[in-house]
Amino acid sequence: MLLNKLVVIDLETTGNSPKKGEKIIQLSAVIIENGKIVDQYTSFVNPEKSIPVFIEELTGINDELVEGAPLFAEIAPKILEILDEAVFVAHNVNFDLSFLQGELENAGYNTFSGPSFDTVELAKIALPTADSFKLSELSTQLDVSHVRPHQADSDAYVTAEILLHMVNELSELPLVTLEKLLELSSFLKSDLELLFREILKEKQAHVEDLPLDLEVYRGIALKKKAPIDRVDSDWEMQHIDKDNIEGLLKENIPFYENRTEQMKMMKAVSESLHESSHLLVEAGTGVGKSLAYLLPAVLFSKTNKKPVVISTFTIQLQEQLLHKEVNTLKKMLGIPLYTVLLKGKNHYIHLFKFEQSLRDHDPQYDIVLTKMQILVWLTRTITGDINELNLTSGGRLFLTRLRHDGWHLPHQKDPWVGKDFYLHARKNASDADLIITNHSLLLADVASENSMLPSYEYLIIDEAHHLEKSARQHLGIVLDYLSIKFTISQLGMLEQKQLFYKLEEILQVHQITDTSRSFELDFQLQNFYQEMDEAMQLLASVFYKKAKKRKGIQKIQLRLSETILKSKEWQPVKIIMERIVSDMNIIDRQMYEKLDKLKEKTNKLKDVEKAIVEEAYSFLLEWVELKTNIKNIFLQELEDYVIWLDGDIRSLPNSLVVQAQPIAVQSEMQTEIFQKKKSVILTSATLTVNGTFNYFMQEIGLNKKEVKQLMLSSPFHYKEISKLFVPTEIPDIGQVSTDEYVEAVSSHLIGVAEVTKGRMLILFTSYDMLRKTYDLMKDSGLLEDYVLMAQGITSGSRTRLTKNFQRFDKAILFGTSSFWEGVDIPGEDLSCLAMVRLPFSPPDEPVAEAKSEWLKEQGKNPFSANALPEAVIRFKQGVGRLIRRSSDRGIVIVYDRRIVTTRYGKAFLQSIPNIPVHQEELPELLGRIEEWL
Question: Which of 19, 39, 31, 35 is nearest to 95 (CA)?
C-alpha cells in the first residue's frame, strides 16, 4: 500500500463535546508506514477536572491515573509532529478529529489540515455483512485480540489492525469491482477515495487471474452458484445404526450428556412422521429439541426421499439450524445432506435492477454506500439473501427499488435470469432433503397460488408459541403513514423526476402515444397527494380526540369500535378515503396503459429502459396493495377483524399506524395446514398452561382427537439452582396508584441491585412503568457505580443492549415486551430476574378487548379462556431467561403479589419448573440472596 503514512488515533474523553468543556484523558496514536505498524505513542492527559463515574466504569481510567499526567498543551507539539504529512484515521473519525482539533485550538496550535479516513465507513464497505460496526464487535468477529476495550492504546492498536485487515480484503477484490468502487467513493464522507485509488493502482500493476469461485458477468463480479449435486444411493442409509443414536451423538458432540427427554422426543417425532400424524411437544430448556426433531427428520427424509419443511420464528434459530446443528448431523451420519434456507422472493436482490442502478449517478450518500456494499457482497454471497447485509435505514429504503417480485417483462429478456438468486434458491429447494424457512413465508406460501416452497407433506414448526400471532399478522393489514408517503412518493409528479417522469421520457423517445396526456395525469397526481395528506390529518384529528390519554404517556392506541365507525366524526374520513381510492383507480389504470404499450416494444427498449419499466411494474404491485388495504379498512366491513390506530401524540400524523387483524385464525389454520399436511409437528419450550395444551390447541384450531401430545420437562435441577422470591412489603398492585407502586418497587430494586452487584434483568409490561422505574433508580444517587440500560431510553436494538449488558460488571437491564423471550444471557452475567408485574395484556389493548368480546359471545369466560393462559405463557418465557445452561444459578423476584394472593396465581407457579418460593420482607430477602449467590 503506497499511502506512505497513516496515523490511527483514539481518544478517551470526559464526555462527548469539547465545546461544553469536556477534555481528553488519554490519547494514543499508532503509526502505519507502507502497510506495516511501525510505532505507537500513548499518553494519559490531565483534564484538570474530575472524571465522571460512568467514564471511569467504561474506561477504567480514574482521577489518580491522570493526576500526574501532562496537560494537553504539553503533548500537542508531539501530536502535530506525528500527524505531519499523514492521513488521520479513526473509528468514527468525526468524533476523534473534531475533539482533537478543539483541543489544539484551545491550546493555541494550528489544527490538522490533512485527509482523513473513517474506519466505520470503510468497515461498512469492506465487511458489509458484519453484525455490527462497533470496534469491540468487529474485533471479536475478525478474531483480533482486544485486551482493554475503551482504553485508547488498545482501541487505537485494534483499529490499526482492523484497518490493515480491511485493506487486505479490498485488495483481493476483482479489478472490475474496484473500478466501480472507486467511481462511487468520491461521494463518501471521509477521504476514502484516496485509498480506493491506491488499491486500484496496485491491482492494475499486478493483474491476477480471477479466483476460480468468481465470475464476471456484464461488468459485475459475483460468486459462482454451486448447484445441489445429488448423489443419493440406497446404500447410504444402511450403514447408519438407528438403534444406536445415543452412541452416534456421544461420538460426535463434545461434552454430550445423555438426556432421556431428548430420546423421548426423537422417538415421538420419528413415529409421527412415519405414521403421518400430528404431534405437539413442549420441551423445556436444556432438552436439546433442535437435534431431537432434526435427526428423525433427516432419517425420514433420506429413507423416504420426501422433503421435510422446518419453520422457525427467529432468524437466529434459522441460522443456528443451518450452520450448527445440520453440520453436526452431516458429520455424524456421514451422508450427503441437502439443506436449503428459503425465504420470500423479496429477500433476494433483482440483479438486472441493480446493474441498471449503477448507471444512475445519484450522489445521495446512503444510495452510494449501499451500492458499494452490494458490489463487495456479490463477490462473497452464495444465497443472494439481502438480510445478510448490514445496511443503513436509507440503504434499506433504496433496496426496496431492487427487491425481487418476479418479472413483468418476458423474463427471458432479462440477461441476468441465469444468475438469479431467487430462481437458484427455488431450484435448490426442489432438490433438498430439509427446507428451513420462517413462519411468515410458511403462512404466505400456504395461502398463495404461486407457491415458493416445493410440494411437501411433512412440516415441523419450532417456536410454535408464535404461530397464532404470526398467522394473525399475516392475515392482517398494516398501514403506516411514513410507509405510505414513501410508497406514493416513488411515482412523483413530473417536476420531481421520479418514475412517472422517467416513463414519460421513454414513451417520448419511442414515440408512443396513449389515451392519457401527461399534464392531465400530473394534475391528477398533484390532487391525489394533497388528498392523501388531508386524509391523514383528518384521521390524526379523530384519533387525538377519541383516544384515551394518560398523563406522561405519549404512545396511545384507539380501537375503531362500531360506535366510532358510525359516529359523525368518522363520516368525513370515509368520504375522503372513497375519493382517494377513486383517484388511485384512475392513476393505476393510466399507468398500466403506459406500461403495457411499452411492454409491446420490449425488443426496442434499452436495458436501462427495461429496468425502469420493471421498477414501475414492481411499484404498481405496491400501489394496488395499498389501494386494496385502504378499501378493506375504511370502505368495507371486515367481519371478525379488530381495527385500531397507534400513534405518538408528539408527532402526529407522521407516527400514525392503522392496523387490522382477524380476531381468531383457527379455521384458516385448520383448513390450510392441518387438513392439507400428512404430519405437522409443533414444538416450543412454552406451549402448556397448568399441564395441558388446551389453550394452544384452541388458538391454532387443533382438536385433541387429531394430535398426539408430549410434555418434556427441563433436565435442569431448578430446585438446587434457582429460587423465587415474592416481597411481602410491596403493596397490592390493584390497591394503590401506579406512581406509589413504582416507588415501592424502585426502592426495593435498589436494595436488591446492591446485593446482586447488578447482573439484573428487570421485566415490565408497559413502557411507562419502565421509564418511571428507570428514572427513580437513576436519580436516587445510590447506584452511581452501576450502568443502567433501558429499552427505548438507552440507544440500541435488543441485541445490542443485551451485548452491552454482558460487557459491564455492574449492569442493570430494563426491558418490556420483546425482552420476555429470545434474550439469551447464560452464565454469571445474569443472576437476578425481576418481574415488576404479571404479564397480562392491558384489557383495553385492541386485540385483547376484541378477543374478550368474541369469547363472551361464545359463552366463554374471557379471563380464564384467554387473558390468564396468555399471561402464563409469557410468564414462563420470562422465567426461561434466567437458566440457560445446567451450570447457571439465579433468582427470580416477582413483585406482583397476585401470584400468591389470588386463586389464579397458582396457574403461574404450577406452569414453571419446581422452583422454591419464598415470601419475605426486604432485610431477610437481601440476606438470603447474598448468602445464596
Answer: 19
C-alpha 671/C-alpha 599 separation (Å) is 39
| CA 231 to mean position of chain CA atoms | 37
Give the chain's end-to-end CA distance (angstroms, integer).
Answer: 54
Percent of the chain with pLDDT over 70: 95
Task: Specify binding-site residues for ATP.
Answer: 283-290
* Residue pLDDT, tens place only, 695-707: 999 999 998 888 9
8 A C-beta contact, residue 155 and residue 10: yes
- Distance between CA atoms of residues 378 and 907, nearest Å: 53
Q: How far is Cα 357 from Cα 376, in angstroms, rounded to an integer?
A: 15
- The one-character DSSP state at 807 is H
Closest CA to 359 of 132, 615, 128, 587: 615
| Residue whose entry in the numeric block shows the C-alpha cell 416477582 | 894
In 3D, which of 45, 4, 6 has the Cα closest to residue 22? 45
| Closest by CA position to 841, among listed 903, 766, 735 | 766
Cell numbers representing residue 47 in the block: 483534564
Enumerate the known binding-site residues. 283-290
Half-sphere exposure of 489 (CA within 13 A, CB side): 10
DSSP-derived secondary structure letter, 130: -
Inter-residue long-range contacts of 235-242, CB under 8 Å, 24+ positions, other chains counted? 236/302, 236/335, 236/336, 237/299, 237/302, 237/303, 237/335, 239/334, 240/299, 240/333, 240/334, 240/335, 242/299
Q: Residue 646's beta-bridge partner residues?
A: 557, 657
For residues 410 and 690, what is the distance between their CA atoms, to the nearest angstrom?
A: 57
Give the Cα-Cα-Cα angle 555, 748, 769 (nearest 5 degrees): 5
The one-letter amino acid code at 528 reads: F
- Residues 6 or more apart in contact with residue 266 via CB below 8 angstroms: 245, 292, 293, 295, 296
* Cell numbers linked to 653: 400524523
**Which pLDDT value is given to residue 235?**
42
**Phi, psi (rounded to 5 degrees) for 690:** 55, 35
The angle at the Cα of 829, spanning 825 to 835, to the nearest 5 degrees, equals: 70
Question: Which backbone phi and psi does 355 adopt, to 5 degrees?
Answer: -55, -45
Answer positive or negative: Cα dihedral of 649, 651, 653, 659: negative
For residue range 101-115, what is the model confidence (pLDDT) as tens digits? 999 998 899 999 999
Spatial distance between the Cα atoms of 565 and 568, rounded to a whole number of angstroms:
9
| Collapsed DSSP state (helix, strand, coil) of residue 156 | helix
Q: For helices 119-126 and 192-205, what crossing angle results, to 10°?
A: 50
The number of residues in the chain equals 933
Buried b (16+ CB within 10 A) or exposed e, 524-540: bbeebbebbeebbebbb
Distance set, CA 871 to CA 287, 618, 896, 908 (Å): 24, 42, 13, 8
Q: How many CA atoms lie within 13 A of 896 on its CB side?
A: 22
- Res. 431 pLDDT band, cuts 50 70 90: confident
Task: Return the C-alpha cell found at 171.
Answer: 485488495
